[in-house]
Amino acid sequence: MPVAAGRLDAIGIVVGDLASAVRFYRLLGVRFADGAEDSEHGHAEAELEGGVRFMLDSESSVVSFDAGWKRGEGQSGAALAFHCDSPGAVDELYASAIKAGARSHKEPWDAFWGQRYAQIRDADGNPIDLYAEIEPRT
């Protein structure tokens, strides 16, 4: 008898300030609906290409259904990765993200695996990678 399987439907992260997080992830290209940053329930989501949802939940929203929840320390082991159109776009998006409040983890560099790469942290410390192929895909 086959084991029941699920389908990845959503990726969610917990944020300290929902409105700021929505604005920040819009800068990175996530298409939240107008007004998503004003959610009275502390939850915003956007559908990504391929139908997977990207969800943001405020800390207070999570505590409302999990009273013992506390933000952990250290790295989560999960990261979001944003593909850019060109190596120059990595540099531009990195600079825009830093200006918008992201923290630099590693400035843009040409990685040995053939990509322009940069690593940042959002306002809540969530890791984000920005990348593009150095040579165009053929």
Give a description of the structure.
- The protein has 138 residues and is of the alpha/beta class.
- The protein folds into two domains: 7-64, 2,3-Dihydroxybiphenyl 1,2-Dioxygenase, domain 1, CATH 3.10.180; 79-138, 2,3-Dihydroxybiphenyl 1,2-Dioxygenase, domain 1, CATH 3.10.180.10.
- 22% of the residues lie in helices and 31% in strands.
- The protein is built from three helices and seven strands.
- It has helices spanning 18-27, 59-65, 87-99, and strands at residues 10-15, 43-47, 53-58, 80-83, 103-110, 115-121, 127-133.
- Strands 4-7-6-5 form a four-stranded mixed sheet, with helices on one face. It has a three-stranded mixed sheet with strand order 1-3-2.
- Strand 5 and strand 6 (115-121) form a beta hairpin.
- It is globular and about 45 Å long.
- The termini are far apart.
- The model has no long low-confidence stretch (mean pLDDT 89).
